[in-house]
Amino acid sequence: MTYLPRAADKRLAELLLGSRAISIEGPRGCGKTRTALQIAQTVVEMDDPGARAALQADRRGILASMQAPVLVDEWQLDPPVWDAVRRLVDTEGVPGRFVLTGSADPGESSLHSGAGRFARLRMRPMALCERGLTEPTVSMADLWAGDAKLSGSSPVALADYVEQIVGSGLPGVLREPIGQRQSAVRDYVDYLMSHEIGVHGGHMRRPQSLRAWLRAYAAATGSTASQEAISLAVDRDSMPSRKTITEFRDTLERLWLLDPVPAWQLGVPRLNQLGSAPKHHLADPALAATLLGANATNLLRASGPGDAEPGLRNLHHGPLLGALFESLVTLSVRTLADTLGLEVSHLRTHRGQREIDLVIHSADGRAIACEVKLSPDVDDHDVRHLHWLRNEMGDLLIDRIVVTTGTYAYRRPDGVAVIPLALLGP
Fold first, then answer.
1. Is residue 329 a contact partner of residue 419, using CB atoms and an 8 Å limit?
2. Domain boundary assignment for the chain
């Protein structure tokens, strides 16, 4: 199959030049192995029982004899291989020697952290710009450098964005015909619940109750709803125990399936009354849509299917489509920010008077503030919090942007950049 280039390709190439080993982490099916195969000279597939048994006989000896870069795929199936690689890179000191991919954190407390030996590369399902809908014309790198040129028109309409939301950014799903993608996502969710959760989280006594909780979490997409509120949204007869929910969430995090956006703590004295709750997101908005029974047809109506259910409708504000579009933007922005070594958070004051959907920032306090708007049009009301943050941060705020479903990329007279999501690229 033709390889679809990823934003992570450039970052991986950079890491190979300066890091002795790289750990690529992310949910199953997000493309870690295909990306690593583009640079690997030798591959060890740990999900092959024969290969795993052979390696276990002499991990260090066999790995040391292989031509670099060596890809150890699904390394978590044999956790001791992590320490074997760590010791080899300590001995050899050669950059770009090993690449390890894993779709689950094994949770082995006995394993060394790998600090100083491993560089970590997070991969997610494909950003919109990686899916080939249209050529991006606005560069995230240029936005961060402060010299972005805003130009271009997008042929991607609202219905196209909805197809991308429900059709997933998982490369294997994207290769399916459009009409079959959501069925493939359902199969993915079913596999996770019937197999992966059991393998990595132990026996599930009431799988339907855990699925009900995950459905409530999906309904909270883009919100800062409390864990208590999410649990209370589950039907009383289906509600798992608090201990079970904690174990389930831990397993989902180890499988990289929960991808919450942390709250930004700016450290500016005037901004010391910021909320600390994360915004909830699953690894792919298609997972949330599938869990909630949303499809392209009902999402394009005035309200999504989750809004009709009393227990779920208060977990997100407004129609479900707005929350899922924000999740698609978040996935895309995080993917692009990762290539620049930047973090992504959200900002909300304690009482909710001020909110910024996404803040792309570096360790030195510089940032880009980003609002997400489902509508193609942007008015003064939409940018009021961006202006407020500029007044608070001054020159530390590099740019202010609104990501939309519109047609044109341009800069408003007040300096705010308006960018259709389809035009935003590396």
1. no
2. 8-122, 128-425
**Nearest by Cα to 418 from 393, 401, 399:** 401
DSSP 104: S
What sign results for the dihedral spanned by CA atoms 162, 167, 171, 175?
Answer: negative
Q: What is the domain class of 8-122 according to CATH?
A: alpha beta
CA distances from 186 to 8, 9, 308, 312 (A): 27, 29, 21, 20
Residue pair 316/219 in contact (Cβ under 8 Å)? The answer is yes
Separation between Cα atoms, residue 98 and residue 23, nearest integer Å: 9
**For the segment 11-22, what is each residue's pLDDT rounded down to a tens digit?**
999 999 988 899
pLDDT per residue as tens digits for the range 196-214: 876 666 556 677 888 999 9
**CB atoms < 10 A from the CB of 260, how many?**
16
Q: Which residues pair with 419 in a beta bridge?
A: 403
Helical axes 158-167 vs 178-191, angle rounded to 10°: 30
**How far apart (Å, rounded) are the C-alpha atoms in residues 89 and 130?**
33
Q: Are strands 417-420 and 410-411 parallel, antiparallel or unpaired?
A: antiparallel
Specify whether the CB–CB gap between 200 and 251 falls below 8 A: yes
DSSP H or E run through 332: helix 320-339
Strand-pair category, 70-73 with 343-348:
unpaired
Please report the sign of the dihedral spanned by the C-alpha atoms of residue 157, residue 162, residue 167, residue 170: positive
Look over the chain and give the mean of its residue pLDDT values, rounded to a whole number. Answer: 90
Beta bridge partners of 367: 361, 397
Q: What is the C-alpha separation between 221 and 292, in angstroms, rounded?
A: 11
Q: Is the peptide bond before 95 cis (omega within 30 degrees of 0)?
A: no
Cα separation, 257 vs 287, in Å, equals 9
